[in-house]
Specification:
Layout: H1 3-13, H2 31-42, E1 46-47, E2 51-52, H3 59-74, E3 78-81, E4 87-91, E5 100-105, H4 118-134, E6 142-147, H5 160-165, H6 171-176, H7 185-192, E7 207-213, H8 218-222, E8 226-232, E9 235-243, E10 247-248, H9 260-276, E11 283-292, E12 298-299, E13 302-310, H10 314-335, E14 338-347, H11 355-367, E15 372-377, H12 383-386, E16 392-397, H13 413-431
Parallel strand pairs: 5-6, 5-7, 7-16, 8-15
Antiparallel strand pairs: 1-2, 3-4, 4-6, 8-16, 9-13, 9-14, 10-12, 11-13
Helix pairs in contact: 2-4, 4-13, 9-10, 11-13
């Protein structure tokens, strides 16, 4: 056994057994089973070891969906799929009540890691397996959910499945969304057999929990095992189209060029300084550049930039957007270009997560001896949309060095398992 694997196994064995309480049996999830499930999932779409490339509705995602559904059915759960491909696996309760949901996503980024999204879904599965093992009785059903296309790596916008479920994105618009090859989301759902029949928007759950790696190193620096997410950064995604003129790269004098790529590059170079003027919490990123015609010997006449802005304050985000408009205008004037800006996605503005669920998580963390800190979420998550229709809570766990959206994403198994036990207790509390 490799040294790292041995350390992880020893860490799992060191977790204490179930503690009985007059109200609830405090969980001790089967760490070995959870890690086996995570490792088996990571083998589906394995890429550039130890990474995973499992883009939404590709063949690896198809196989992951089939495997997840098999695991759920083998655990005695009923599985349904809605019209946008979200998967729901339900353990029935004793009463006809709205479910307590726990989940995240199984698709990954192009340069994906093993834990972003998958940790939340498969920890949800392990919680339900633990409930089955214990013969626990809950009034509410407990439902694991895997949301479609959270990453937005193949189809935009991100968090597409949860947005449709929450009524924030029309189904017809989602199904018509296309990837770079022109394949529609709806056609690809049909191809892989996950164009379900359950209607959307969906029925709001009684509570929603999402278990996710932090994607930063704040928890690691503070020595805390669990982050209680209380708020979210507003996020704005924009597509900026620059229009110039094609010309010969050799015979056209510099003074006569209307080079769209040069104008776009000036904007890209200005974004870091723009963000720095708004403090450490501001984020400004160019995440994509599409150049046409992109051929040797031809000056580009069209460039589309995808720009991502984030800031905890709405007014600062609006100010950043206004400054971006002025930067674009000046670049266009210098280079003789035209430009248009389109809002592609916006989320997180004014969002606050449920105080009562946060209190439940803190209470069980204290009973289980797990240190917590309150946090804001900078990255987007499906819980953003769920929070608009139901009580919702994100639980963050540390990821090593804050490395994420990267094949070297990693976690400390023992720390994550401690927080997973807190999540299990919170879910059981909400369901009973």
């Amino acid at each position: 056994m490799p040294a790292a694997a041995a350390r992880r196994r020893l860490a799992v064995i060191a977790v204490p057994p179930v503690i009985q309480n007059a109200e609830i049996a405090l969980p001790s999830l089967d760490g070995d089973r959870l890690w086996r499930t995570l490792e088996n999932a990571a083998a589906i779409g394995a890429w550039r070891t130890p990474g995973v490339q499992r883009l939404a509705l590709t063949d690896p995602d198809w196989l992951m969906r089939d495997t997840f559904c098999m695991w759920c059915r083998d655990s005695g759960l009923s599985v349904t799929v809605d019209r946008v491909g979200n998967i729901f696996a339900r353990r029935q309760g004793t009463e006809d009540l709205r479910p307590v949901m726990v989940g995240s996503h199984l698709d990954t980024q192009v340069a994906g890691g093993r834990y972003d999204g998958a940790l939340g879904v498969l920890t949800g599965l392990e919680i339900v397996r633990w409930l089955q093992d214990q013969g626990a009785v809950t009034r509410h059903p407990v439902e694991i959910v895997s949301w479609s296309n959270e990453e937005g790596a193949r189809f935009r916008p991100p968090m597409l499945g949860s947005a449709v479920f929450a009524g924030a994105l029309p189904l017809d618009r989602a199904l018509a969304t296309t990837d770079d090859a022109g394949m529609s989301f709806g056609a690809e759902l049909e191809r892989i057999g996950y164009a379900g029949v359950v209607p959307v928007p969906g029925a709001a759950p009684s509570a929603y929990f999402e278990f996710h790696i932090e994607q930063d190193d704040i928890l690691e620096q503070r020595g805390a095992d669990l982050g209680v997410v209380t708020s979210a950064f507003p996020v704005r995604g924009m597509a900026i189209r620059f229009e110039g003129e094609t010309a010969h790269a050799g015979s056209t004098p510099m003074s006569r060029r209307r080079d769209a790529l040069v104008g776009a590059a000036e904007v890209v170079a200005a974004l870091p300084t723009l963000a720095e003027r708004h403090g450490d919490q501001a984020r400004a990123s160019t995440t994509r550049m599409d150049v046409w015609p992109g051929c040797t010997g031809i000056i580009p006449s069209e460039v589309v930039l995808t720009v991502d802005f984030r800031h905890p304050q709405d007014d600062a985000l609006a100010e950043m957007t206004g400054q971006l408009d002025r930067i674009i205008q000046r670049a266009c004037e210098r280079r003789g270009l035209g430009a248009t800006t389109e809002s592609v996605w916006e989320f997180g503005s004014g969002l606050a997560f449920d105080r009562e669920l946060a209190a439940v998580v803190r209470r069980w963390a204290q009973r289980l001896g797990v240190e917590t800190i309150d946090m804001a979420s900078v990255a987007g998550h499906d819980a953003y949309w769920l929070a608009t229709i139901a009580p919702a809570q994100i639980v963050f766990v540390p990821c090593v060095g804050g490395v994420t959206h990267n094949e070297h994403e990693d976690i400390d198994y023992a720390r994550v398992l401690r927080s997973a036990n807190v999540l299990a207790a919170a879910v059981l509390d909400a369901a009973r």
